[in-house]
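Q: Given only this backbone (301 positions), what sequence would you predict?
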């Protein structure tokens, strides 16, 4: 490994340690009735205070919402009673990022669902090594879920991770599938089983809402504020996802809304729709970022 690689790896590991700590603190922090925006901001501030930056907005996805919900500015929603809550966190140091998630359960009825997501992740971590087929990993995760009487979400996947890239090109499905793709030693990847009830469809669909965005391409924009905004986004977040909550200093300016719309319509930025389980059934998730090794893996989160 070159010197730069060693440095990069150290940054991946530091981001992972910061997230592991943040995740523990968030598990103890979140309560029924709490404003969701308070949960998001707490997590993002913990990550900053520990010396990293959020790699994406803190996702707080409740019940049938599987992923990609973060509070918009002035969000009034609260954590409902008897809910299950996925908290999905990302942190980076110079773009070297880690990604991890837990499900907090306020409903005894769903404890087995949450436990199943955790067990499926544990099984996957025990199985990963250099040269393993991604299809085999998917089959192992699927079996860990179905053998406990639950159903995997078939259209959400884990992923390889790169510098300033949450999804670096390789998908890691949570179900058996056809592929010749393998994991290699030195790769960083996130494994994230999503689990739902046996009578659910077992897929997510896009909801009409979207609160997470990402820079796509530098474009010449008509509105001067849109141009400034796009420069700021590119400089601050690179190709990592962001939320409007992180654009407060622009939001108070006249014409902000039109500028934001122009960035979207020109495809300078893209939005990530909120994912909901297609039959409205509750979803649990567990996620770790790992470093693939010759004979196993190292959990970084
Ligand atoms: Mn995640
Ligand atoms: Mn992920």
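A: Predicted residues:
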């Amino acid at each position: 490994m070159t010197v730069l690689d060693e440095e990069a790896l150290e940054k991946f590991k530091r981001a992972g340690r910061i997230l592991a700590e943040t995740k523990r603190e968030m598990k103890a922090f979140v309560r029924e009735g709490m404003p969701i925006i308070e949960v998001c901001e707490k997590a993002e501030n913990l990550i900053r205070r520990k010396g990293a930056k959020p790699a994406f907005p803190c996702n707080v996805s409740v019940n049938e919402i599987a992923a990609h919900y973060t509070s918009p500015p002035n969000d009034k929603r609260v954590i409902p009673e008897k809910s299950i809550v996925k908290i999905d966190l990302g942190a980076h140091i110079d773009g070297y990022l880690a990604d991890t998630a837990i499900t907090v359960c306020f409903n005894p009825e769903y404890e087995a669902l949450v436990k199943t997501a955790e067990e499926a992740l544990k099984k996957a971590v025990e199985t990963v090594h250099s040269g393993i087929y991604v299809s085999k990993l998917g089959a192992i995760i699927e079996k860990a879920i179905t053998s406990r009487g639950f159903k995997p979400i078939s259209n959400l996947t884990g992923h390889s991770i790169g510098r300033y890239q949450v999804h670096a090109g390789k998908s890691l499905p949570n179900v058996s599938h056809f592929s010749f793709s393998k994991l290699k030693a030195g790769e960083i990847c996130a494994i994230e089983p999503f689990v739902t009830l046996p009578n659910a469809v077992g897929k997510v669909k896009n909801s009409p809402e979207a609160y997470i965005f990402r820079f796509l391409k530098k474009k010449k924009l008509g509105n001067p504020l849109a141009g400034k905004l796009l420069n700021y986004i590119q400089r601050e977040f690179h190709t990592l996802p962001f939320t409007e909550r992180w654009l407060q200093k622009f939001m108070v300016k006249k014409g902000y809304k039109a500028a934001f719309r122009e960035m979207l319509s020109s495809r300078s930025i893209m939005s990530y729709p909120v994912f909901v389980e297609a039959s409205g059934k509750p979803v649990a998730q567990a996620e770790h970022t790992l470093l693939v090794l010759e004979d196993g893996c190292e959990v970084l989160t």
